[in-house]
Amino acid sequence: MTLGGSLGAARRGSLRDVRLSHVITVLEELYPPAWAESWDAVGLVCGDPDQEVARVLFAVDPVAAVIDEALEWDADLVVTHHPLLLRGVHSVAATTPKGRLIHRMITNGVALYTAHTNADRADPGVSDALARAVGLTGGLRPMVPAEDDPRRGLGRIGELAAPVPLREFTRRAAAGLPTTAWGVRASGDPDALVRTVAVCGGAGDSLLDTARAAGVDAYLTADLRHHPASEFAEHGGPALVDAAHWATEWPWLADAERLLGASSPEAGKLETRVSTLVTDAWRLHEEGAL
Ligand SMILES: [Zn+2]
Questions:
Q1: Which PANTHER family match (predicted)?
Q2: pTM of the prediction?
Q3: CA of 85 relative to ligand 1 center, distance in Å
């Protein structure tokens, strides 16, 4: 055990009186697993509900750099948006990157919990935080309301305080989101006025037709591909604003952190942190030379 580990264990000996099971109960009230898509895998990935928790790290991606940060900070629980194990696995041997992560977490007593499409559908959820980050105000409404509660659902539609040209909205969106190599790109007339905007955190190309039908001026999401985006413009659809996948979901982490801390006196004792590591898949960006 390292010196840091010994000190961490001593420190936590006095603080550790919140059980992981309590944190899970709170997270599942905020983000009920039943709201997740049928293909999704949410909830506790590793960890013992009976273990005690003092430090919680929030991050978008359960990747090695985030687990490094969790271990360095002596976290007991990592809450991520993306699942580590989405498809069926037959082994978590430390012979694959994911297996190694599972081993490192279990060996060091770190639990991993995922809130993914259930957090997308929550109120407030992933797209509420994104909408506020890019300057939308007022009553946000879902792009696709949930059948049992129209206040929540997929994506959000809101208004800017005043109309601005697309180029200015794109600039503001970039300024409101964390910096990535990908940046923020837009299709459409740069001078067209934008006031009503739809947003969807993460890969939102399945909601392109929904955005068009909603009559918004612009639709901001991530992972848009050339052909759908090009055809969308040809059909006179709203402007498209394409941000880095990680950047569109990162604003939600602070919401989840705040809501967890405010949920109960016990949870209020937790030390929490939002990871600022940029774990977007794209790391370099160069302009063309011709
Ligand atoms: Zn995502």
A1: GTP CYCLOHYDROLASE 1 TYPE 2 HOMOLOG (PTHR13799:SF14), NGG1 INTERACTING FACTOR 3 (PTHR13799)
A2: 0.93
A3: 14
